[in-house]
Design brief:
Oligomer: single chain
Number of helices: 5
Order of helices and strands: HHHHH
Mean pLDDT: 79
Radius of gyration: 20 Å
Number of domains: 2
Length: about 130
């Protein structure tokens, strides 16, 4: 009972502690960050690397939607009634990959499970 009452506050506490840790680390190492210099083509290479990384993660999210569809088909869902939106799958996959870097090593499961539950509930209520 006590854990249920504290759960919403615990989430904000962990988020606050994470943000404070990041700000403190940035504050402590700010001079080192300022001393970094990019080469002439460094910004172009950085943007190219970011583009390739985002494209690879978006592709992985799209493939993840295929896996979900196959798993749900194996669970007895009819393929005609089941359409997993590509945008939803990619956005959920990207959020999950960002959340796995948060302290606690559990947030990526939480981030993936909530939208999946809403999606499955939506599919069942329209069939």
């Amino acid at each position: 009972m006590l854990l249920k009452r504290l759960k919403p506050y615990l989430r904000w506490f962990v988020l606050g502690a994470t943000v404070l840790f990041l700000l403190r680390t940035l504050h402590d190492h700010w001079q080192g960050v300022l001393s970094l210099r990019l080469a002439e083509n460094g910004l172009v290479l950085l943007l190219a690397a970011l583009t390739v990384t985002l494209a690879a993660h978006a592709w992985s999210g799209w493939v993840w939607s295929w896996l979900l569809r196959g798993l749900l088909r194996g669970a007895g869902q009819e393929l005609e009634e089941l359409q997993i939106p590509k945008g939803w799958a990619i956005a959920t996959y990207l959020r999950t990959n960002l959340a796995k870097y948060l302290p606690g090593n559990i947030w990526h499961f939480t981030v993936a499970s909530k939208p999946a539950k809403r999606f499955l509930f939506h599919c069942r209520s329209h069939s």
